[in-house]
Design goal:
The structure is a homodimer of 148-residue chains. Chain A has 6 helices and 6 strands. With 148 residues, chain A is of the alpha+beta class. Chain A is globular, with a radius of gyration of 18 Å. The interface between A and B is large, with 39 and 40 residues. Chain A binds a DNA duplex (30 and 30 nucleotides) through helix 2 and helix 4.
DNA sequence: ACGCTTTTCTGGAATGAGTCAAGTAAGCGT
DNA sequence: ACGCTTACTTGACTCATTCCAGAAAAGCGT
């Protein structure tokens, strides 16, 4: 587990590399998402406030948008949930979501090709295949058995 | 192209088969979605009102939920859009969405197995693999070329 | 260190999808 | 046709998110 300082330094470096100014809220958002991936805007705001003190809601939204735009964050919007963000970008990985508790786990793309080439493209030019697996996480499986 | 009456009769039959009461709003919603698949709640409401007269927004939402629950409709929520519905159920087909105009096309699942079995399941028990392809539809490709 | 530029703050308001609650209407089995 | 049960109506309401505008603060190249 890296220290907060290591995470902050790394976040600052990524911001600079992307040509963005290094500001406390931006670093805070990146650190928050390293600590808790797939968090929504509200959760990110709470994390950032916990470590930085007062940060406006607008600032959080601004930062999330700016960093997503710059390619430092990836935004995902699972059905039935608000927008969520993660720092793992650049590899088109997929997600596994628990139907019961909503926890999200990353999944590496199994076989690259099959998912990217549907039988009929209807003339579409595709640039991304987004895969979401739905099911029950280990905890919720046992919880369900106890009820039954 | 089937007539409205054929669509209504068919919709009523499906409702009865599912053990649901046959009401005008329900039939209207099913017909609307036969005519325009992947419509959102608001679009469905407009279609239904055009053919039935006044129908409350709440009724439309209730019907969409009830029919989804009963398995007569499938609900999808693409990123950046509101919930959309379709009458094609029972075959876990996928979707292709145009980033520019938002049009949605159905896609048969290419190779059944590969998409359903990620490398690492992290202990999850999966029941569905949802695949969304993003790209440009034929119309928007030409539109983009004209701009460039 | 200075000053220009970008970012953030305050805070208020609007939007739009969707939900809750309680009363009214309608389907359908008998 | 009756009446029970389910569905629909009405209207207020929540919630995430966006927009707005001006003022204050902070980053960073020189």
């Amino acid at each position: 587990m890296p220290t907060d300082e290591e995470l902050r330094d790394d976040a600052a470096a990524r911001l600079r590399a992307a040509g963005l100014r290094v500001t406390a809220p931006r670093v805070g958002v990146l650190v928050a998402l390293e600590r808790e991936s797939h968090a929504d805007a509200d959760t990110v705001a709470r994390h950032v406030r916990a470590s930085l003190g007062a940060v406006s809601t607008q600032a959080v939204y601004d930062v999330l948008h700016a960093l997503t735009e710059a390619g430092l964050l990836r935004r995902m919007e699972p059905a039935g949930s608000t927008a969520r963000y993660e720092t793992r970008v650049g590899d088109n990985h997929h997600h596994m979501i628990c139907r019961r508790c909503g926890v999200i786990a990353d999944v590496d793309c199994a076989g690259a090709a099959p998912c990217l080439a549907p039988a009929h493209t209807h003339g579409f030019v595709l640039d991304e295949a987004e895969v979401t697996f739905w099911g029950l996480c280990p905890d919720c499986q046992t919880a369900n058995e106890e009820i039954a």
